[in-house]
Design goal:
The chain is of the alpha/beta class. Among the domains are: 107 residues, Alpha-Beta Complex (Flavocytochrome C3, Chain A, domain 1), CATH 3.90.700.10; 96 residues, Methane Monooxygenase Hydroxylase, Chain G, domain 1 (Up-down Bundle), CATH 1.20.58.100. 33% of the residues lie in helices and 18% in strands. The strands form six sheets. Strands 1-23-13-18-20 form a five-stranded mixed β-sheet, covered by helices on one side. It has a five-stranded parallel β-sheet with strand order 8-4-3-12-19, with helices on one face.
Amino acid sequence: MQVHALPGPWAPRHLVGFDLRRRPHLEADVLVIGGGVAGFCAALEAADAGREVLLLAKGSPEESNTAWAQGGIAAVLDPHEAQPNDTVDLHVRDTLAAGVGLCDEVVVRDLLADGARAIACLRRQGCNFDLDDQGAVALAREGGHAARRILHAQGDATGREIARALAQAVERHPGITTIPGAFAIDLLTEGGRVVGALYHRRDELIAALAGATVLATGGCGRVWRETTNPVVATGDGLAMAYRAGAAVADVEFMQFHPTTLYIAGGARLLITEAMRGEGAVLKNHQGERFMPGYHPQADLAPRDVVTRGIISEIRKSGFPHVWLDATHLGAEFLHHRFPTIVQACARFGIDPAKDWLPVHPSAHYHCGGVLTDAQGATTLPGLWAAGEVACTGLHGANRLASNSLLEGLIVGLRAGTAAAAAGGAPGRIRISADRPDPAPEDLDVQDLLRSVRSLMWRQVGIERTANELAMARRSLDFWAQHQARDAFRSPAGWELQNQLTVGALVATAALARTASVGTHTRTDSAGAVDPRHFSLVKP
């Protein structure tokens, strides 16, 4: 594993100077930062173990990447429920193939073997999956999967149903205290151990102290201009962990979802891969199917392959998007199976039963993150990470569709168990120093943020070269040193600094990985493949 680090200005600790003797603070046995599937599961598991849990939620459950997940959750169920032609070994094989040689096979087998138990846990918490005509769990298929093993809910609202069930379970649990609208600024460390976090709420800075901390803040898709992610996905957890000294790995691997609705001025609505799993096909501007020419699995090839196929067709035609044709599936089926997509398209006057959908790739899921083991333990004592913010080794260079919710569920449960065993009253903690007052915020934060996101899309996007990546690093360095270097007073400024940090991490790792693999496409690599792991750590 090759180690890299960002120079000088990339590790400002916003907590420097925070004096617990003069500021308000809360204490708990276990602190969980994040309100998605991983954070909820960690909180429930730690609380069930008898620990007092404090959960910081930046946004509402409806704003999380969990709630926005349409397609479903991949798992091989118990034998009496599973399709007869599916096994855990097949799921492992598909995951390893999608990861293009960079998955940790031991972790893959460990996590996927736990799928049935994890799904059973969700159902006990009140999550209702769709059933087939015989009353069994309905299973769909998505790209890269050799069998139908995708559980879904309310057609294409699986994440929303999971978030609902877990949020209600958290709300009911007497051992969990949730703080809504809490923006986590930085992890608190003492003697090399994480002892909690500093957060902002209602114009007040507050310390949350705990014997164990679980980071479950989600992804960083908003760092790119074109993205399927909600506004809260700004890479805060990854930046916080890096500043605190945690190792982060494989951050160059941002998965670009092949099909998002592409309408000028409109939000980039995700068109779930499950639609292609049910038979929808991609067509170019001439109305011709093109994916059979790129991969034997055609429209059901792994996402990185489909994304590159779409970009190739766009380049050939000069047209800004391609088309997804689902008209042959029929209105009744589409309304039943994909109600969210049908309703969203209707707002633009599009009917998927009659019209082809204009689609284009967008930043979707980060395969890298804070380096952890299969239990969620990071390289920092006292800190666990789970969900999209973490890198367990499950995804490698490219995530297999619908493995993300499963990973967040399983590792969230495990991290909660481990944190409960290690947690307890934080004890006496001394964090005290002089903190300068923040500088006046005369910077146009939103303007600089738009520049960062546009740069990441152009130069650290789907296709990359050494020259473009080096230019991106120089721009990010300049902005960090000369425009966004000061202390800020509000979440908008902190989010900007976090996105600058994440952008620099991704650009640095992408520059170091000199050949194409998975979601990382180097057009200057002359077709070479370089399947090596990289890690970035604070010096």
